Structure formats: structure tokens, C-alpha cells
Amino acid sequence: MTRWSPALFAALSLAACTTPQAGPVVGPAPVTGRLERPIPYPVTPPAGHQRAVDRGTRTPTGAPGARYWQNRADYAIRARVLPAQKRLEGSQVITYTNNSPDALAQLHVDLTMNHHAPGVVRNEPAEVTGGVTLTRVAVGGQALSAGGTQGARYVVNGTRMVITPAAPVQPGATARIEVDWGFTVPKEGAGGRMGWDADNLFFFAYWYPAMAVYDDVVGWHPDPFRGTAEFYADFGSYDITVEAPAQWVVFGTGALQNPQEVLAPAVLARYRAGIQSDTVVHVLTEADFGRATQPGQAGVLTWRFRADSVRDAAFSVTRESNWDATRTSVGDRDGDGRADHAAIHAFWRPSAPRWRHVARYEQHSIRFLSGYTGVPYPWPHMTAVEGQGIVGGGMEYPMMTLIGGYTAQGDSALYAVTAHELAHMWVPMIVNVDERRYSWMDEGMTTFHEAQARRDTFPGTTPELEDRASYLGTARAGAEGEIMRRSDFHYTSAAFGTASYPKPGTVFATLRGLLGEQTFNRAWTTFHNRWKFKHPYPWDFFNTVEEVAGEDLDWFWRTWFYETWTLDHAVASVTETDRGATIVVEDRGLAPMPARVTITRQDGGTQTVEVPVEEWLSGRKSATLTLPPGGGSPIVRVEIDAENVFPDVDRQNNVWTRP
Fold first, then answer.
1. Residue 27 has what pLDDT?
2. Which phi and psi angles does 372 have, rounded to 5°?
3. Using one digit for the tens of pLDDT, what is the confidence trace for 464-507?
């Protein structure tokens, strides 16, 4: 990352003048004694990221390096759903490929369902169901013993299992890990991200032992799941087999491999029609409940799903849900000049009638965000499952989302949460960020994407201003935490929520206002395309924006991501004589930003001038604009940020009007 050195601009550019005239100037001279304000110091990436740059896996410009690598985990899982017992049991083989330059003496595995084991450290209450029972762990065909300090073994500590194989996994080698497991399904598991409801719906997420991430910046990620901050995983393939009783419909991450073996003939026909239709087809309605599937073998059906290039997998099991299907355009995935499509599915129970619109909401969200991000949706389907009684808002998984009923909240709220959860398909499901440490990359980018989708769907609405108001409410109360604070270690839920969702969403809109829409959009899509199916860190984003914009923005990153400084520009005074006018602009906050000043004269003429950010970065808290005479027309109004682009905590002092 480049370094900032302060420079004083002696003259300001003049825009939209009614008549040609000399530009205003700003004064007085730079502060030479004690500074009046803190000056944001340069952003220094942590040692791990700097080492990655030195080793060539990352670059100072924000792009992946020539030596970039990431490990891979491929899963073959067989699971059995036992609805009456509220249990899931399974066995799996993980083929783990070590693409790193390091020999791995240990292998780390996440056991997220141990969030429900007794005595586990949590940030919030959780139902105790006993956690995961492991009945077999093997590496390379060798069964391992639990515990101990010598030889091949495994140790479980909370939500993490650490395996010590008989020999380290060498660079370029693979390890075959076999695990047999089972657990009692919590009602609202993993912090309301999976579970069951009303004896007619199960949703399984974070349900299988999953490889933790070993990357080029941190190595093995040691952070456990505490219930608040979310997840981080490598990409891989999934071959999933789910055994469930007949008349329970299973749908999940990946392409359904055997629809003809599991769906009743009439349902199968509607399913096939729906995924090729631009209008919604009702695959299942209440009239089909109890006769949706084939009878199965001894009353049990086997459903098979396959997925590639995903970082996780989830599935739903339901016996009394409507099923709507359609398709949506995602743009040109393969460069052949023709639009490609993804199937859209919505599963919802009659108790959630607003969900009759969700398939259409999904259509729009996937189509719009494929264009906005510059990354076409890459997978065969996107499926939304209504999960009232499990989740209040929504939660995302590759190709799947679980969302509450939203019966009381209204249709616009249901669209907003649908757009939000589907926007997560880009971050973190494609642009694979570490949610557990940097929730703002996941939730903040998604909040920003949601706002763009909402504006497109409901022209004239102001979702970005809603996010800004939410952030400013916390900021005015002095209750926010830094965006870059580790996600699990905010002091309050309000601080975590603000730093993860509305503040970063607001900051991205602020960055767009600073750079201009064209430059911002180019930086935004460049970042998404550089880091699709890879693991970016915050400094990769910062550096990408700086490279595209051609600007050093350390002052911006430090101000908005590392501090809780607020912006408060004010028109302190306006004085006008026959020799011209002086306007004093004060910066009463700590967040340095350009002050864009719009001056309106009595004859209707306007001009906009800017106090550049360098004025505040020089250590001052006030700047004086000196304007030449206005040709006989006095100034009647002065306003800072008339376009309402920046998150000023007190807009009342942004305006001066002639008494």
C-alpha cells in the first residue's frame, strides 16, 4: 500500500458557475505549531499479509500474486434424517489437498454442532443437545484414537477437532479423512441458522465435520465458532446422499442428480417445466402434500446432490411446503455471447402467505446482482426456504437460503431480506472472505448490494439513507465499535451489528461519492473479479481500490474502518462586501472528508467549490473560502454536501441562509 504525504492545495476548482470568474481560494496558511486535530496515519497491514506480499502470493496492488495458492477439500457424504428422533447421522470421506508450500503436521476440522455441547464457550445462549458424537475418525484408512499426546490421534476442543496424522501431509499431497458422526438436531441451531420447526421442516446447515482453512496469511485459522461471527471455508466439491422418509422432500446445495427416482411423476413433470420457465410454476401445492414423492424402498428415499466450486453445503427436508420454480437470466457465464440461466426455487408453508412472491424476488435479485457485480451467478440453482420458527431474519449458504415467514413485516421487507441473503452468494460464497474476523466484508458488502437491488426494484426509495440513519443513530449515541475490530469481540451487539452491516454499507456509498460512480464501479467489479473463488483480506480490497482509482486513500481507510470518528462539517460564517465574500467552513468532527460547498445567489446562479481533504489532513479544523464579487447578486444560501452524499452527523449546521 502506498503512503500518504500531506500537501496543501492553494486554490480550489470551480464548477457550474453562472459566469466566468476567478476561482475561490482557501486560507490561512498551514498550521505550523500544535495540530488542531488528529491526522489519520498510514494503514499498515499485519505481518502475515505483508509476508504474503513478500512471498508473491499477494501483491501491493491488491491482486492475487503469481504464487497465490489455496487448499481444497472435496466431500463425499452420506446422511440419514430421522425426523421422529430429531437426529441426523452420517459418514463422510474428505479428500484434502495441500496446495500450500508447507508440510502440515496437523489437520484442523470444524465441528460447528459442538456449539450445542455442554461447557462450550459461547457469546450467546444456545440449546444444549450434546453436540456431535464421533464414532470413527481415520486418516489414510488408519483409525485414530481420541486424545493422547503421542502417535496418530485426534483431539476435540469445543467446535474444533485437531487431527495428528501418522505423517505430515506434504506440499502437493492429499489426505483421505473419514469420519462417522451423529447429533441431535437443535430447534434453533448455530445461532438460529439451522434446526427444525412444527414437525414438518428441517434445515441442515453446518451439519458435517468441515475442514478449517489453512491459508497464506494466517495458516490454520484458530478461531472457534461462538455463535455470533460466522464462517470461513475452502472451496471444493460435494457429493451428498441424503436418506429420508418418503413424502419428505429434500433439496440442497448442488444439482439434484436423481429427480426421476424420488419425485412423483406429476411433480417431476412440473419440476422439469419450472426450471425452464420464465414464469413461476407451482411444483407442489397443498393438494400434493402426502403424495409428493415416490414410495421408496421400505418407505425411505435416497436423494443425491452434486456441487463443485462451493465452500459449504446445506439442505432442507420438508413435507408440507409449497414449491415454486422458475428460472432467471444471469448474463453470459461462458463467453459465447448468449445469456445463461439459473433455476429458481422457493419452498414455503401455507402459514407464510407472503412467500408466494419469493420466487419472483429471487429472479430479480440474482439477475440484477449478476450484472451489478460483473460476476454472473455461477451455479445451477438458487433456492429459498421459509423457516419461521428456526430463523427470524435470514441466513445464507451456497445455492440455499433460510428466511423467516415475514407475515407481519410486509412484502417490501421480505424482498429486502431475500435480496440480502441472495447477495451473499457473491460475498462470501464466491468472493470467499473470512466472516469470522471481518464481518464487514461479508455483511457490509452484502448490505450495500441489497441497497442497490432495492433501489432497482423500488425506484424512488432510499435504502442507502436508511442504512446511514441506522449507523448515525449508533454513532451519535457513542455506542459504535471500529469496523476492523474482530467480529466476536465487540462490546455490545449494537456495536457489532453497526460495524458489520449499516456502517460499512454506508462507507461504500461514501467511497462512491468520493471517487465518482464510474471509478467506484470499476474498482468494485475489479475486486469481485480478481477475488472470485479466492480468499481476499481487507488490505486486498483497499489496495485494489487505490490501484483502480489512482489515489492514496490511507486516510479514508484509517478514518472509516479503524476509528469511530464522525463527520461534522459546518458553515461557520458568511461575510460579503463589495470586494467579495468569505465563507468559513469548520470541521467539527474528527473524520476528514472533502467539503463540497454549493453557493446560491439571489439571481438563481449557483456555483460549487470544494475544500479538499488535504486542508483537514494538514491539521486544521477550519478553512476560509474567498470569493470574488458576485456581479451585484448577493449570496442567499450556502450548503455543504447539497447532494447528501456523505454521512454528516449534524446536517443542520451544513446550511447558511441569508437572514
1. 53
2. -65, -40
3. 999 999 999 999 999 999 999 999 999 999 999 999 999 999 99
The per-residue pLDDT for range 35-63, each reduced to its tens digit, is 889 999 999 999 999 999 999 999 999 99
Task: Give the predicted TM-score (pTM) of the model.
Answer: 0.94
In 3D, which of 451, 360, 456 has the Cα closest to residue 411?
Answer: 360
Query: From CA 655, how far away is CA 659, in angstroms rounded?
Result: 12
pLDDT in tens, 585-605: 999 999 999 999 999 999 999
- Half-sphere exposure (Cβ direction) of 521: Cα atoms closer than 13 Å: 9
Nearest CA to 391 among 400, 382, 399?
A: 400
Picking from 227, 14, 247, 11, the residue whose alpha carbon sits closest to that of residue 121 is: 227
Query: Residue 378: which of 420, 432, 415, 439 has the closest Cα?
Result: 432
Q: Output the nine-digit C-alpha cell for 288.
A: 400434493
Pairing verdict, β 219-220 and 214-215:
antiparallel
Domain-by-domain residue ranges, the chain?
A: 14-38+565-657, 47-67+439-562
Which fold is adopted by the domain 14-38+565-657? Immunoglobulin-like (2.60.40)
Residue among 108, 38, 45 nearest 71 (CA)? 108
Residues 6+ apart with CB under 8 A from 537: 45, 49, 58, 217, 433, 434, 438
- Report the CATH architecture of 47-67+439-562: Orthogonal Bundle (1.10)
